[in-house]
User: What shape does this take?
Amino acid sequence: MSPQAMTAGAASLANGFFITFEGGEGAGKSTQIRRLAKQLEQGGWRVIVTREPGGSPGAEAVRHVLLSGAAEPFGAKTEAILFAAARADHVDTVIRPGVEAGKVVLCDRYFDSSRVYQGATGNLAPAFMQQLETVAIDGMMPDLTLILDIDPRLGLTRADQRRGSGEADRFEKETLAIHRARRNAFLEIAHDEPERCAVVDASHDVARTADRIWTVLEERLPALTRRARTRVHV
Ligand code: TYD
Assistant: This one.
């Protein structure tokens, strides 16, 4: 691990913060991220909103290959390596530089999605997934991971409404049983890593979920919310 990577895990040392959002389809992650970004910006923070797979030019190119299903014929292992490759580029070019510059980086999905989609429901060996994760993140651990939890039936209905007549992506198309297994896998991660993760019930309306997220931030990252105390309704 590089000396840079060793300090990056404790992102707040550099005064920035790295927060990841996880959860199944239709949990409302991107809406919540946009709201939170506005709130933090109004409180004086510089914020980077980003997502995975993607978030940097190199990673966005890989995103297209993954979500179109073009990589599916090559198998779960190849897909997992591609997710990790995209992540490594994203960490190096966007996440770490952002946190080191004192910004708040809000990321829609990160390595927990690989653990769940490729690991738990893609049946790849935990040891293989762990190695990929280590290489991809190079020590860049989130300060906080918010797991937006929702019953997959409700989540998929929301995702359908959002998509309208557009096509479901490679991962949205899978069966309800798989979506349920993913929900359980996310909850298991939260249970195993309570210091890093917080579960937020995402079945309520946008404003209530946003309030709950803010409360979690106040509890977990007081240095972040103190500077953005004014509660604005965006
Ligand atoms: P996206 O359109 O960003 O959807 P969402 O709103 O659900 O985040 O699609 C990303 C898809 O890629 C999503 O189905 C989850 C999947 N994914 C993985 O399988 N592994 C990963 O490591 C990541 C980051 C995403």
